[in-house]
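User: As part of a screening pipeline, I want to sanity-check one entry by hand. Below is the sequence and the SMILES for flavin-adenine dinucleotide. Please return the complex as structure tokens so I can compare it with the automated output.
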Amino acid sequence: MRSAPPDAVVVGSGPNGMAAAVTLARAGLGVEVFEAQPSIGGGARTLDLGLAPGITHDMCSAVHPLAIASPFFEEFDLRARGLELTVPEVSYAQPFDDGPAALAFHDLEQTVERLGAAGPEWRRFFGPLLGRVDDSIWLSLGDKRSLPPTLRDLHGLANIARFGARLLSQAGPAWNLPLSHEHTQSLFTGVSSHVIGRLPGMATAATATLLALLAHDVGWPSPVGGSQAIIDELVDDLEAHGGAVITDARIDHVSDLPSASAYLLDTSALDAARIFSGVMPARIDRALKGFKQGNAAAKVDLVVSDPVPWRDPEVSRAGTVHLGGTRGQMAAAEADVVAGRMPRQPVCLVSDPTLFDPTREVDGLRPLWTYCHVPFDCPLDPTEYIIRQIERFAPGFRDTIVAHSSVPASRMAKHNQNHVGGDIGNGGFSFYRMFARPRSSWHNYDLGVPGAYLCSSATPPAPGVHGMSGWFAARRALRNRFGISRTPCLAPSL
Ligand SMILES: Cc1cc2nc3c(=O)[nH]c(=O)nc-3n(C[C@H](O)[C@H](O)[C@H](O)COP(=O)(O)OP(=O)(O)OC[C@H]3O[C@@H](n4cnc5c(N)ncnc54)[C@H](O)[C@@H]3O)c2cc1C
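Assistant: Here is the complex for your manual check:
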């Protein structure tokens, strides 16, 4: 640890906390990061859970289009730092009870070909956006306050209008009009499962439109060795610029922290209110406490002896598999979750990293990453729900299971206190909450205390390993607290 007091303190070492820390350190400031858990990385940790010797599991995130496409990571440039990413030929798959699965290839034309009669409408939906993906990325991953910097000309405006039209088409009751075939509908709805909410809806449609577009652009890559490799690069950069991360350091109040000119919190809105209790203006305290949790996820990590025996073997070409069947079946399961009922067949996400990264296999065993959507704070063990859902599309799967570990929604916060009640979005996500996150204010990274900022996924642009919330909050702190208006260069060569 540095001997001089830090200029800036970051609470929480998730991707946003680390993005903030790196940005501040790159501006020449002394930075210390305080992390409650014994390990660094929040939602991008890869840990040995003790299920089988040498096997490691991605605790939260596993698949990372945003860590390539986000403007923060584009600047930080993970690949130029030597991070190896595997990009599956098939970004994601949607198996059905009968017949062949729908597949979204990295390559749009291969997807169109596989979809057969439904292919042209998929091409009409995504093809026109692929020429200038940056506009869609900035619109989705911006601070929801400023215009995308890529908006230089009429082409950019037209492109954003195209993206918006597609998003809106999937957010309301007419969602089957542009995607009229069961395979295209279900493929798109599977991507919506990266947000947990009512279908159709604005938040699910916005996330799905971006992620499905990125599947045909950067693809859906995963780092060799697991998500932790992303965090390791951020930590290396921070340390190379004089910063430090202190683990096992849960912060309950600002008085637990060293004195600094800026405090950036990669925490929940509730924790931010707690940390600045007695100091924060009452109206902001009330607003933060009024930022309600969203729907939840429950996690099951498995060790298996073989690849998942999908009924349609083509599914094994995909990095991510969305389970839930047809659009109608998934919408019904999500409606149960929103209503607080455990669905009989919950929407599940599955990834077998060993298919593309042989380093994950040890002595013939491999990790399998899964989670499912459940009601907020649900105490049920998700294991049987997930196994049954995989068996539905991969008979015989159960026989490959060697060990497993599960975390019900009600216990998710033990591993990351931002996930209260299993809300992995760190606060509800809706059209309103895309903007008013965590509160309705033009300056929503500010906590109303001089030098205090929220920099987690409780702020725009919301969840995902993109580092954007941390980057935006750090840039605001640099401007307002340190008089530095130039965004520091994050390029690896410095
Ligand atoms: C099961 C699951 C699967 C996911 N899959 C993907 C995926 O495949 N791709 C993707 O892009 N995203 C995925 N996500 C979402 C992604 O992980 C998060 O959106 C992202 O990690 C949020 O980053 P963050 O820095 O805001 O917060 P987090 O990553 O949650 O990190 C917050 C950190 O702050 C620490 N902290 C909180 N409060 C305190 C305190 N008071 N004192 C000290 N430390 C504190 C926590 O311990 C934690 O380490 C997934 C999430 C989950 C849970």
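Points to compare against the pipeline: The first helix runs from residue 15 to 26. DSSP finds 16 helices and 16 strands in the chain.
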